[in-house]
Each structure stands twice: as structure tokens, then as C-alpha cells.
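Lecture 7 notes: from sequence to structure.
We start with the chain below.
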Amino acid sequence: MGEHPRTLTIDAAMARALELAARGPAHGPNPRVGCVLLGPAPDGRAAPDGASPESLDPHPRRVLAEGYHRGAGTPHAEAAALADARERGVDVAGATAVVTLEPCAHTGRTGPCADALVAAGVAEVVLAVDDPNPVASGGAHRLRAAGVRVVRGLRAAEGEELLRVWLTSVHRGTPYVTLKTATTLDGYVAAEDGTSRWITGPAAREHAHRVRAEVDAILVGTGTLLTDDPALTARVLAHHDAAGDGRLLEHQPLRVVVGLRGIPPSARVRGEGGELVHLLTRDVGEVLGRLAEREVRHVLVEGGPTLATAFLAAGAVDELHAYVAPVLLGSGRRAVDGLGVATIADAHRFRTVEVRRVGDDALVVSRKRTEGRDG
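Predicted C-alpha cells for the same chain:
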């Protein structure tokens, strides 16, 4: 793993573990997790099992090893940290494992992390977020049964924010849905003749490709496919690259076309890039269910208005990425068709989490309001 801090408090170690977790890929079926192994607590300073995070030892301890999950099929964070310790020749008996997500208790492509920590002689586990996955949960119970002290909830809010997409998908059993729109100031996505390239500038398109690189699947309707002939790839774009061409990134999301019309043999989605899937349905629930079967956690809905409207009307949109260009058309195609809203009280409302300038354009990121959190 290279150099790491020499000493950290448990709280600072969790901050470090969250930082490590964020290095893992945002895409894929598995969560991003980080782990820091600290030396044993000095006599009398160890928190009892089930203690609150506030009662943890505030004194710095030696950092023994650290690790994070690098994606499906690679070692989990705890296993990576234990491997780091072995490489350094460090004994972790009596250590404290500070980990961002409850260690798993199931055997998938790798063995249970809870068992690995027990076998290594770890005495204490401090975690940020409980694992909601019914397949993997139970790690804390298994640790306690083996005599390992467990403290939960340290920096839980930060852990949940990092894992927001994954947690939502696992809780619900369907992918997290981000809807992208690119409109003029007066709300149009295309002129009256159907042309839409380019409403937004190069910087906004470059940012949109970075988002594509973090999702598992991109969705478009057959109408948009036939009108715009998009490639639906994630690429590295230069600011001057008006054609939208550029080097393909290593991760390419699944390319999903939704609708009953056929995909032309010459369509760009048949070219290089992610796997192409045509879902012959207009039912949003069926689309999300089919993608969940493929372990898709995060879907980016890119258009067009018919598909965007269907997802909004179904209440299936978790996050909106609205790119707004300082352009006026006066007429044309709207980003969203009729939602059946007759009065302002029935409006679909989201909460804004970020407003960013992207070149000459603006990006507004908003998320679905959740009960008890938003007024």
C-alpha cells in the first residue's frame, strides 16, 4: 500500500478509512470500503463491546496496515489490510480494525471478512455503517460470538454518504437512478427541427462523460437512439473536442436501449463500448427489475423526454443532473413531457445538493426528498 500515517486516533483512522474507500471504483456491484488496522489499546483504554463511538479511546495508536476494496473479484478491504500487514511483517494480534462498513459474514468470490479478522487475532472492530445486504450481514454478530469487541456508528453519516448509491440500491433491491438533462435557459432540449447538438458546451459534456464512467448502465429510449444515434460510451474528452470523440475509458457502462422499436444495424451503440442490451418494454419497473438481476447498482437515464417523463412519473428518479446552458430557443422539445401535475401542490420536488459552474453552463444536482430529512 506504500506509506501510511504512523499514528492515528480511532476517529482519525476512520477518516483515513473513508479516504481509502473513496479510491475504489464507484461502479460495480460491491460497495467501496476502507480499513485501517491500529495497534492494541493500552491497558484500560479499550471500549467495552457495544460502546458508543463517543467512548472510544482518544489517544493516537500505531498504524499497522491499511487496505481498500478495488472492485468485484478483488480482496475486500479487511483482507487487503491483513495482506498489507503480512507484507510488512506486522503482527495484528490484539489490533483494532477500523472499517467503513460492517465486515461481511458470507462467502462470495472471497471468504468472510469477519472470519479473517477473527483468525488474525483482531481484538476490536470499529465500524461506520451496518451492512444492509441480507446476504452479507451478520458480521458483527459473528465477531462478537468469537469474543471480538464491536463498536458501531463512528462517522456513520460520512460513511452513508460515501455509500449512498450502493446502500439505496441494496435496501430497495433496484438500481439507484440518476436522470440527466441538458437544457436551454427556457427549458428546451431540442429545437423545433429536432436538432440538439450542442446545447451545452465542451466542459459540460466532459463532466457528463466522467459521470458515465462511474455508473453501471446508461439508458436511452428508442426515440433518442433513432434521432441522435448516440454511442453511449464513457470517454476522455478534450475541451476543444466538439465532435464528442475521445479515448475510451477502461470502464464502459452497460448500454441499455428501452422501447419497442428496433435498433438499426448501423447504430453507433453497436460499436466499441459496453455491452448492448435492448429491453423491449416501456414499463419502468420491469426495466429496473431486469437491471437488478444483472447486479446493476447505478443507472444513468440520458433521454429523451419520453423516457425521462416515464421515470419521473413512476417516482423512480433518485437524483437529477440538470445541465443548463445560457441559450434561448423560444420553442422546441421540452426536457419532460406532461407529468399530470395540475396544481403546484402536486409538483415533483427535489432538494438541491450542489450547484456548479461547468464552463459557460451550470450544473444543478438535486436528490429525491426523503421523509424526516427534508422539510
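Points to note: Residues 10-21 form the longest helix (12 residues). The mean pLDDT is 88.
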